[in-house]
Amino acid sequence: MPELEFPNQLNNFLTFCNLRNSAIESKSLDLQLSSWFYPTTLLPLGAFIKEKREQIKYIPPANQNVANYLSLVTGDLKAENEGKTYIPIINLPPKSLESESGKLLGQIFKFYNNGKEYGGENAFKYLISELVDNIYQHSEFKNAFLMAQRYEKKGFMEICFFDDGITISGSFSKHGMVFEDSDAILEAINGLSTKGKERGFGLGSNLKVFTQGLPGEMLIVSGKGAAFFKANEPTKLYILQDKYKLEGTLISVRIPYPVKEVDIYEFI
């Protein structure tokens, strides 16, 4: 039987899971042989390192360039980072301080020149703002993070969002709607709401702009469900094994770079 092929972003998430599981079992996160991580691996891994810092020994990559990069992206966003190709791992303010997220988003927009090379200012700000708002509206998180990296030679930027909240299916179940994790992702994409008409997850419109407008790719992992979306390809749904379960929700998007301006009103 041929081996099942997964999208790159899903493989990158599974890499994180394998590192996490090995670290929990051995009490040691050994990255000595690691040569590179995409945000879809690095963001949840960075969150894991912060959470388990006192419980698990961390062994950095032997390659000093990789070790330095990991140290940089797990730090705080600073003004001197402007002009670089990455946004380091950023903690979103807690729900009680949601209003402060606007200041943080302003830093991100400035960092990437208001998205002029990423579908234009309207598209870029809409996409990022909607995904962040979605976290605040639905996840009930304790911790939420984002990071991004531009790959000029590869021709794309990857942005990743991760929260340790109640998952998409968990949000539905609180309102009496019970779905398997993968089905819950689809229901959210299709506009099923827990907050009344026009107050759903907002992922459907976001997905259209990402995959049809830019066009890019989107991976959503929540609990034991995963879904991958790409323009002109059927949606790929996955039911993950227990060892790959995510306590929360991760959204990873890849945007072509550079990409022409997109009229978001064609898709929302």
UniProtKB/TrEMBL annotation:
This is ATP-binding protein. Keywords: ATP-binding, Nucleotide-binding. One of its GO terms (molecular function) is ATP binding. It comes from the Archaea.
